[in-house]
Sequence to fold (274 residues):
Amino acid sequence: MTSAQVVDLKGKKLSEIQLADEVFAIEPNMGVLHTALVRQLANARRGNASTKTRSEVSGGGRKPWRQKGTGRARAGSIRSPLWAGGGVTFGPKPRDYSISMPKKMRVLALKSALAARAENLVVVQDFDNLKEAKTKQFHQVLKDLGLCDKKVLVVLDYACDACKRVELAARNIENLKVIRSSNLNVKDLLHHDVVLTNARTLEAINDRFKKSTEEGAPEKVKAAKAPKAEKAAEPKAEKAPAKEKAAAPKKAAPKKAAAEEGAKKTTRSTKKDA
Fold:
């Protein structure tokens, strides 16, 4: 099982924390990572650009001049795309650029991004020693950890007041971004060089992905096959009454035939008497 060093805000090693093998020890899937990154960038597009076609531009209700005899090119409307102020041909219209992606692929992409940053993971015990939300103090913390010249992604769970102070102190520092652990995404993990977090947040990330792998594990469905056998046996029991119903009209047929023959004989006898 892989592990990471836990340090204090001065960079002194305190202990080790275990990293979940289901997350940080897997081989990154580059194809899924690329698909997830393209999806995230596409979903961030607003898609609200809009231009007017010749049917939407105002004016142009009559023909500018007659068809022949003027020496000029024929024209039917001032709203033509060939005219200044006319409509736009094949211009952009509001559209949705979003791309869908299966949930399991999104989880795999996020785990692959975390595994790619496993060697560049810096874990501090906590940020409680940061007493004030001062940019100067947090910049000193980055200097003590040796992260001043790197792109740093700070991941917090916002379970204490210290996390709020870190967010306020770090928002003016260049090449640094603070996000919630629930908002982890592929783009930020790949864009930044180092992931800075605390021990509590890292345990929450481990538990989150362990639950997702347990939910996705296959389950035995032997118990589900029993109702199918019972349903298959039910139609056989229902077929017996159907046969009896089919046999009943056959038995009644000779009686009807005898009654019809008797009726014919009576009609013949009445005709002879007449």
In short: The chain is about 45% helix and 10% strand.
